[in-house]
Write a structure and sequence with these properties.
single chain; alpha/beta; Molybdenum Cofactor Biosythetic Enzyme, Chain A; Molybdopterin biosynthesis moea protein, domain 2; Molybdopterin biosynthesis moeA protein, domain 3; seven-stranded mixed beta sheet; six-stranded mixed beta sheet; binds ligand LQZAQKY5; binds molybdate ion
Length: 396
């Protein structure tokens, strides 16, 4: 292909932006908070209440005035009168006077007049109405009103990925439903004559279809709707039939058949009968990825190599589908990482004691380099990383 009529060797950022530009803007919807896992928050979320809603105890024990208890020790315990009880949901509504305390439980509101807690382990009953403290009550064992968030405060920003802790937070803020981006409907197809369903007897040269399983899992994790197109063998006719079955999808993801081989028909089909926005990305793994269109449907062709397809999904496709940026952080390198002259490398790394080291085998067919790794170590084009240098990593 001497002068292809489309860009080749685009950067990772360009690839992501070109895919985003082809995807439809889907708008937003509200969903029950318990079903929002993985979705992208579409509007800022305010706290409808404060949490804690009142200053409360962090321990089971008694609540007292700190000043009444300062002299308490195992040898000289302090004796207080029990004025009542405060339980989570059933607060004590009186006032606690000097020399008095209330029995209190974790999460129960602190009654007026007291400011400190002594845990049950440091107490001894002294008759039905009194208690002995073997140490002073601590003000630090109370949880102040609004210590987590205050009513009216904007706590979550639009664009956040709703992870499990964030779904819990949205519920704690008082939201039964949350506004989220509509799900991208993604048709998923794996290709290759040698690729067969996991579990079938494996003939020589065959390989189990791990890409479709892995990509489907990543799509679900990302809050996308998956339209399973199954698997197509390496023939233009069967690929065309599969492409035609992707109706209703917003985008089609394929795996395999995009490199230089004679049987890499996916690329040929897009070049000859569809459209191509780019072919090849300056990255490893994942270099042969292709973006194009088929009858108006955006098609992203992921390379067949198992590590390549999942890494390209992670750093290019997922951010474009969800609008959630790739989150990177900086770590010191425990081993050297080689650079590539004209490609950004995403080497698999393991994090130990706050530093990131080389996983070892970095072949694009070594799936364990991804499943056992903690992070992708980003080495920019032309760069190389020495031991002790700080590198950008993307957590897996
Ligand atoms: N002469 C060249 N050969 C290759 C180049 C190149 O530039 N010049 N690029 C290499 C790179 S980089 C990659 S990545 C692969 C990508 O090739 P394809 O997208 O055409 O993928 P296939 O040839 O179909 O398969 C590659 C490899 O992956 C296995 N595979 C495919 N699908 C699956 C699946 N669903 N689950 C598990 N494994 C799968 C397949 O059996 C092959 O082993 O091309 C290099 N070659
Ligand atoms: O990226 Mo290929 O993706 O280097 O094996």
């Amino acid at each position: 292909m001497p002068h292809p009529p489309f860009p080749m060797h685009v950067s990772v950022t360009e690839a992501r932006e070109m895919l985003s530009a082809l995807l439809p803007a889907l708008g937003t919807e509200t969903v029950p908070v318990a079903q929002a896992l993985g979705r992208t928050l579409a509007a800022d979320l305010e706290a409808r209440v404060s949490h804690p809603s009142a200053t409360e105890s962090a321990l089971d024990g008694i609540a007292a005035r700190e000043t009444d208890t300062l002299s308490a020790s195992a040898e000289t315990p302090v004796r207080l009168r029990i004025a009542g009880e405060s339980r989570a949901g059933v607060p004590f509504d009186g006032t606690v006077g000097a020399g008095e305390c209330v029995r209190i439980y974790t999460g129960a509101p602190l009654p007026a007049g007291v400011d400190a807690i002594c845990p049950v382990e440091e107490l001894q009953d002294d008759g039905p109405e009194h208690v002995l403290l073997r140490r002073p009550a601590f003000p630090g064992d109370v949880r102040p009103e609004g210590g987590d968030f205050r009513a009216g405060e904007v706590v979550m920003r639009a664009g956040l990925r709703l992870s499990a802790p964030r779904v819990a937070l949205a519920a704690a803020l008082g939201h039964a439903r949350v506004p989220v981006r509509r799900r991208m409907r993604v048709a998923l197809l794996s290709t290759g004559d040698e690729v067969i369903e996991p579990g079938l007897p494996l003939k020589p040269g065959q390989v189990y279809d791990s890409n479709r399983v892995g990509l489907s899992a990543m799509l679900q994790e990302s809050g996308c709707e998956v339209i399973e197109l199954g698997h197509a063998p390496d023939s233009p006719a069967s690929l065309q039939a599969a492409l035609g079955a992707a109706g209703g999808a917003n985008v089609l993801l394929t795996s395999g058949g995009v490199s230089m081989g004679r049987y890499d028909f996916m690329r040929d089909l897009l070049v000859e009968h569809g459209s191509v926005s780019f072919w090849k990305v300056r990255m490893r793994p994942g270099g042969p990825a292709i973006l194009g269109g088929w009858n108006g449907l955006p098609v992203f062709g992921l390379p067949g190599n198992p590590v390549s397809s999942l890494v390209v999904f992670h750093v290019i496709v997922r951010p474009a589908l969800t609008g959630q940026p790739v989150q990177s952080l900086k770590l010191r390198a425990a081993t050297p990482f080689r650079g590539l002259k004209d490609k950004t490398a995403f080497w698999r790394g393991v994090i130990r004691e706050g530093e990131v080291g080389d996983y070892g085998a970095q072949g694009s067919g070594i799936l364990r380099s991804l499943s056992d790794a903690d992070a992708l170590v980003i080495v920019p084009e032309g760069g190389a990383v020495e031991v002790g240098e700080v590198v950008d990593v993307v957590l897996l």
